[in-house]
């Protein structure tokens, strides 16, 4: 699968189960460098078949066996002023061009040793099962097959590997020439560090947990509580860092003074009665109730979002739960995007030049107009004063089934995922509409029909 991302925004379109979410997850997981995020289910069903055939074969071919792996090739467009950022992945000192690449591979540490360990464990298990009273019967002990073994041992048997790619060894479709063997960057740690220095990937998932306020679910509060909690986290991460904001500190100080006076007045009778009991004792000190207002946690303590209808004395303030899911989803996405960007910016000297943000199905609960408002303004949210025209940039990738989002952005950013069945296995072809040329009328009509079918699912 080859996907070319636009410099600003790309839109993934396609039928359900055409590979849009799988593509975004694969990019995130492979760039993360975390083995724990992978399971055997991330390998295709076709791969499972190949693995079990290897496990069922004799050990004669183990020395030359090839264990299937997952590979991601990342290509970056660079200018002369950006070369210092990509020095670790330049294929040679004589390199010329505008594209540099790095390959991430998640595969077996040693195919031979993996197969040997599997065969030894299976043989020992079969011997123990046969020694049971009455024999093994229909019982098949673990590991039943190579996939059964890897379901448990994948993280021990597989590792990440990183390679420098030479653009001259690839054709126009970025398919490598026969016999090409890319140079290894080195150990997994150094390769991961190089990749981390180039790109950061974040994702705003489709499931944003904005539940109905009347929900009786025990998994969490209603949607108003969820949104308020998200804004509280945003406050703690970003707004509370302004320790020199004396206007805010003055307001908190005055609030604390007023609250202390109120507490002293309210608790005075109770404390007076306690004093008659001779408590707390030593030299009979007095008790005093004081507030403990913490500026860094003020948003998480009895603070919630409200909506104001009207102006001045005529204004009506309504709890957050009285607003619709669509508007709440819009607010949630904006806050989440700003927070993800703030984390990227905070990396300062270690900040990678590219920030890739995936947003899944932003149209959830949104009316047509709000869908268009969001997609029209999402890039404006990511503009950072001082970064415009510099080496740092944000790219947005959106997966959607909404024709209104497509209408607002046009055909250029669309990447259409089309399913293919090859020898009983599903594969995906990604069409880049920015390079789509209008040909004969039947071809254009067929493509339009396919897009319409995808958006209707």
Which key features would you list for this structure?
457 residues, alpha/beta, 11 helices, 17% strand, disordered C terminus
Description:
The protein is of the alpha/beta class. Among the domains are: 1-18 and 353-457, no CATH class; 33-198, no CATH class. It is built from 11 helices and 12 strands. The strands form 3 sheets. The protein has a 6-stranded mixed sheet with strand order 6-9-10-1-11-12, sandwiched between helices. The chain has a 4-stranded antiparallel sheet with strand order 2-3-4-5. Strands 7-8 form a two-stranded antiparallel ribbon. A hairpin with a 6-residue loop joins strand 7 (306-309) and strand 8 (316-319). The chain is globular, with a radius of gyration of 29 Å. The model is unreliable at 212-225 and 440-457 (pLDDT under 50).
Question: Topology, please?
Answer:
Layout: E1 9-14, H1 20-32, H2 45-56, E2 70-77, E3 99-108, H3 111-130, H4 146-157, E4 158-165, E5 183-184, H5 188-196, E6 199-204, H6 223-237, H7 246-275, E7 306-309, E8 316-319, H8 325-345, E9 354-360, H9 368-381, E10 393-399, H10 403-409, E11 414-422, E12 425-432, H11 441-455
Parallel strand pairs: 1-10, 1-11, 6-9, 9-10
Antiparallel strand pairs: 2-3, 3-4, 4-5, 7-8, 11-12
Compose a concise summary of this entry.
By secondary structure, the chain is of the alpha/beta class. It is built from eleven helices and twelve strands.
């Amino acid at each position: 699968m080859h996907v070319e991302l636009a410099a600003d925004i790309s839109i993934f379109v396609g039928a359900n189960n055409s590979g849009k979410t799988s593509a975004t997850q694969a990019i995130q997981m492979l760039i993360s460098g975390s083995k724990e995020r992978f399971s055997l289910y991330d390998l295709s069903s076709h791969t499972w078949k190949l693995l079990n055939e290897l496990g069922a074969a004799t050990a004669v071919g183990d020395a030359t066996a090839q264990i299937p792996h997952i590979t991601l090739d990342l290509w970056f467009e660079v200018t002369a002023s950006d070369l210092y950022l990509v020095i670790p992945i330049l294929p040679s000192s004589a390199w010329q061009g505008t594209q540099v690449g790095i390959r991430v591979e998640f595969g077996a540490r040693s195919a031979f040793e993996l197969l040997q360990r599997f065969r030894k464990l299976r043989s020992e298990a079969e011997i123990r099962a046969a020694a049971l009273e009455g024999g093994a019967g229909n019982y098949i002990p673990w590991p039943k097959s190579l996939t059964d073994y890897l379901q448990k041992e994948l993280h021990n048997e597989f590792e990440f590997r990183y390679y420098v790619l030479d653009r001259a060894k690839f054709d126009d479709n970025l398919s490598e020439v026969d016999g090409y063997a890319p140079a290894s960057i080195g150990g997994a740690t150094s390769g991961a560090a190089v990749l981390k220095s180039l790109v950061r990937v974040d994702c705003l998932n489709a499931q944003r947990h904005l539940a109905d306020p009347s929900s009786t679910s025990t998994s969490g509060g209603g949607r108003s509580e969820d949104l308020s909690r998200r804004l509280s986290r945003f406050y703690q991460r970003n707004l509370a860092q302004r320790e020199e904001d004396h206007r805010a500190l003055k307001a908190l100080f005055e609030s604390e003074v007023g609250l202390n006076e109120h507490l002293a007045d309210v608790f005075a009778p109770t404390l007076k009665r306690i004093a008659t009991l001779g408590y707390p004792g030593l030299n009979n000190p007095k008790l005093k109730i004081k507030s403990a207002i913490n500026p860094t946690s003020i948003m998480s303590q009895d603070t919630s979002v409200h909506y104001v209808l009207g102006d001045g004395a005529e204004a009506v303030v309504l709890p957050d739960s009285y607003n619709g899911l669509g508007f709440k989803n819009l607010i949630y996405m904006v806050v989440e995007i700003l927070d993800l960007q703030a984390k990227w910016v905070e990396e300062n000297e270690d900040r990678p030049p590219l920030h890739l943000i995936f947003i899944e199905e932003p149209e959830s609960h949104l009316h047509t107009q709000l869908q268009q408002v969001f997609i029209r303004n999402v890039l404006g949210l990511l503009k950072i004063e001082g970064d415009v025209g510099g080496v740092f940039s944000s790219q947005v990738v959106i997966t959607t089934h909404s024709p209104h989002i497509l209408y607002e952005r046009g055909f250029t950013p669309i990447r259409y995922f089309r399913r293919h069945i090859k020898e009983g296995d599903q594969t995906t072809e990604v069409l880049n509409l920015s390079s789509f040329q209008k040909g004969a009328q039947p071809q254009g009509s067929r493509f339009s029909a396919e897009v319409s079918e995808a958006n209707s699912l």
